[in-house]
């Protein structure tokens, strides 16, 4: 039988995700972080790890190129991924926020310009409140934008708040909380249910029992 394909991004969510898979007996001992290889077969040959960019996990899973995956809620929302989101893994916790120079009054700007890696989430959020904004798509170092006059404010992820602090920016408005999710392709969930369901159930059991898989573990 074909291996179940699991999409994962290198980076912040990789280690804890692989740790959870290991706890349910799915191990990829040929994987190591510095490798340039993008696919790894599990030791039992039943699963295949495919390494994609964080923002692309939802796309691979939605299209069935991967049967399941681990992705931040931020990336799933931004990609508008049509997938089953079956487990909140409880790590990778952070907040979306509007941030800017201290004392910035959002209502002073018409339209408000917003630098962000997440134009869809930003537009959806402000549109739902009937507030007119203009987004400027950035790919990183977003905190720079208001400092150099590229945008009035930013919308970005805040975890510890250190990046904002070190750049003399403040949270002006919090938007929504996010965390890592286990997602499954809708067709795979039906056609490969006998293989996929036990994985979901075991991951759920680990999260429920531990209730303490955190970034600090
Ligand atoms: N402080 C944080 N900053 C960014 N993402 C975080 C943070 N804490 C948790 N996350 C979560 O980790 C996920 C992966 O983040 P990571 O930094 O590895 O990739 P990325 O920066 O989105 O991608 P890339 O580095 O390829 O541009 C995010 O989508 C988010 O859900
Ligand atoms: O509140 P903090 O704990 O400081 O974390 C938030 C920072 O982390 C992320 O950036 P990342 O490290 O992914 O860099 P980039 O997006 O600028 O590439 C995010 O875009 C913030 O800049």
Describe the structure.
The protein has 217 residues and is of the alpha/beta class. Helix content is 30%, strand content 29%. It has helices spanning 14-23, 57-62, 73-79, 119-128, 144-147, 162-166, 186-191, 193-210, and strands at 4-9, 39-41, 47-52, 68-72, 84-88, 94-100, 112-116, 133-137, 153-158, 170-178, 180-184. The strands form 2 sheets. The chain has a 6-stranded mixed β-sheet with strand order 2-3-1-4-11-5. Strands 8-7-9-6-10 form a 5-stranded mixed β-sheet. α4 (119-128) links the parallel β7 and β8. Adenosine-5'-triphosphate is lined by residues 9, 11-13, 53-54, 72, 74-75, 92, 94, 157, 159, 178.
What are the salient characteristics of this protein?
amino-acid biosynthesis; D-Maltodextrin-Binding Protein, domain 2; 2 domains; 217 residues; binds 1-O-pyrophosphono-5-O-phosphono-alpha-D-ribofuranose; elongated; 30% helix; alpha/beta; six-stranded mixed sheet; binds adenosine-5'-triphosphate
In short:
With 217 residues, this protein is an alpha/beta fold.
How is this fold's topology laid out?
Blueprint: E1 4-9, H1 14-23, E2 39-41, E3 47-52, H2 57-62, E4 68-72, H3 73-79, E5 84-88, E6 94-100, E7 112-116, H4 119-128, E8 133-137, H5 144-147, E9 153-158, H6 162-166, E10 170-178, E11 180-184, H7 186-191, H8 193-210
Parallel strand pairs: 1-3, 1-4, 7-8, 7-9
Antiparallel strand pairs: 2-3, 4-11, 5-11, 6-9, 6-10
Bound molecules: adenosine-5'-triphosphate and 1-O-pyrophosphono-5-O-phosphono-alpha-D-ribofuranose.
């Amino acid at each position: 039988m074909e291996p179940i394909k699991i999409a994962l991004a290198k980076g912040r969510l990789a280690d804890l995700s692989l740790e959870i898979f290991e706890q349910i007996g799915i191990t990829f001992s040929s994987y190591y972080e510095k490798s340039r290889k993008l696919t790894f077969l599990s030791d039992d040959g039943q699963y295949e790890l495919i390494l994609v960019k964080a923002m692309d996990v939802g796309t691979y899973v939605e299209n069935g190129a991967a049967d399941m995956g681990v992705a931040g809620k931020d990336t799933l929302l931004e990609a508008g991924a049509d997938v089953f989101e079956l487990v909140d893994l409880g790590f990778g916790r952070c907040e979306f926020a509007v941030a800017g120079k201290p004392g910035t009054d959002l209502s002073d700007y018409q339209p408000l310009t917003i630098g962000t890696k997440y134009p869809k989430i930003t537009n959806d959020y402000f549109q739902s409140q009937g507030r007119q904004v203009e987004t400027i798509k950035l790919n990183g170092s977003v905190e720079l934008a208001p400092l150099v006059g590229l945008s009035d404010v930013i919308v970005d992820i805040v975890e510890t708040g250190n990046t904002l602090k070190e750049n003399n920016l403040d949270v002006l408005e919090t938007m929504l909380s996010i965390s890592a999710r286990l997602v499954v392709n809708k067709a795979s969930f039906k056609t490969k249910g006998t293989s996929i369901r036990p994985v979901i159930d075991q991951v759920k059991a680990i999260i429920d029992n531990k209730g303490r898989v955190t970034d600090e573990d």
